């Protein structure tokens, strides 16, 4: 038995690094047999934070309007939902809280893209990995993931083991398990993110062993392609479902920030 499938992680050109109109993402989802999608574009942040990679605050209303238009156009054929990929970066919580209060979001992913001032998933700054102790890097990263879970701002944690993106794998694993304990305790889900299969690491986020550890803790998964182009919608969902079901994991979606499934 297969539940209706949703792709709950995708972007729009408003973030400055995605192509294709929201309507093209929806059409791609419909063409590949999905039941629904949730747009989760990179949310506005304070002006000093990562500005070139996200919509500006004065574009937020446009984003909501664009998604609403697609929602209306595809009504009865595809369930189109309104979400955000939020960033967790200590000190910005109040700003994030205000943006999250401004519209009725269906689903909010909490992602960590920075350790301090280092955008560690940006290929431009990949050399920095050579100057870092990997175990320490992952400890710092997972401490941030715990902070995100404890903030109460988010429904899920985005691409859990993201620092592996270019192949720098966690040599230890302990910090990840501790973060999963906190994520379980706080009742969050994990963004099961198939973009990792398109990156040098060639592995989804989270890795199979972390998928198992999450499932053992009762943490559910939200499927997401992290599409930045319409062709990426629903990317490798068959493999994702297998990886999750192989370890007894559950797949859920969010609507009005309430978990379903
Ligand atoms: Zn992006
Ligand atoms: Zn992300």
Protein model, in words:
- The protein has 261 residues and is of the alpha/beta class.
- The chain has a single domain (6-260), classed as Metal-dependent hydrolases (TIM Barrel, Alpha-Beta Barrel), CATH 3.20.20.
- It is built from 7 helices and 11 strands.
- It has helices spanning 22-31, 60-73, 93-102, 134-151, 174-185, 208-216, 237-245, and strands at 6-7, 36-42, 79-87, 107-111, 114-115, 118-119, 156-157, 189-193, 221-224, 253-255, 258-260.
- It has a 7-stranded parallel β-sheet with strand order 1-2-3-4-7-8-9. A two-stranded antiparallel sheet has the order 5-6.
- Strand 10 (253-255) and strand 11 (258-260) form a beta hairpin.
- Helix 4 runs parallel beside helix 5 (174-185).
- The model has no long low-confidence stretch (mean pLDDT 97).
- Bound molecules: zinc ion (2 copies).
How large is the radius of gyration? 17 Å
Tell me the strand percentage band: 15-25%
Shape: globular
Which fold name fills CATH's third level, the topology? TIM Barrel
Q: Which molecules are bound in this entry?
A: zinc ion
Q: Look at the structure and name the CATH superfamily.
A: Metal-dependent hydrolases
**Largest pleated sheet:** 7 strands, parallel
């Amino acid at each position: 038995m297969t539940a209706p499938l949703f792709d709950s992680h995708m972007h729009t050109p408003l973030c400055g690094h995605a192509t294709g109109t929201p309507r093209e993402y929806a059409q791609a989802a419909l063409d590949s047999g999905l039941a629904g999608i949730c747009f989760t574009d990179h949310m506005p942040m304070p002006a000093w934070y990562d500005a070139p990679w996200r919509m500006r605050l004065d574009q937020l209303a446009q984003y909501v309007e664009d998604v609403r238009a697609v929602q209306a156009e595809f009504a009865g054929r595809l369930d189109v939902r309104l979400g955000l990929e939020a960033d967790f970066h200590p000190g910005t919580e109040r700003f994030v809280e205000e943006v999250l209060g401004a519209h009725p979001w269906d689903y909010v992913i909490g992602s960590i893209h920075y350790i301090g001032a280092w955008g560690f998933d940006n290929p431009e700054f990949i050399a920095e990995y050579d100057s870092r102790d990997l175990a320490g890097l992952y400890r710092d990263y997972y401490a941030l993931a715990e902070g995100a879970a404890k903030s109460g701002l988010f429904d899920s944690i985005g691409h859990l083991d993201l620092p592996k993106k270019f192949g720098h794998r966690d040599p230890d694993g302990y910090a990840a398990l501790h973060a999963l304990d906190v994520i379980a305790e706080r009742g969050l889900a994990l963004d099961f993110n198939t973009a990792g299969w398109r990156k040098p690491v060639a592995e989804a986020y989270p890795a199979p062993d972390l998928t198992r550890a999450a499932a053992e803790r009762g943490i559910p998964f939200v499927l997401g392609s992290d599409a930045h182009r319409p062709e990426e919608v629903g990317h490798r969902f068959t493999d994702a479902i297998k990886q999750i079901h192989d370890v007894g994991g559950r797949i859920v979606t969010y609507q009005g920030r309430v978990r379903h499934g």
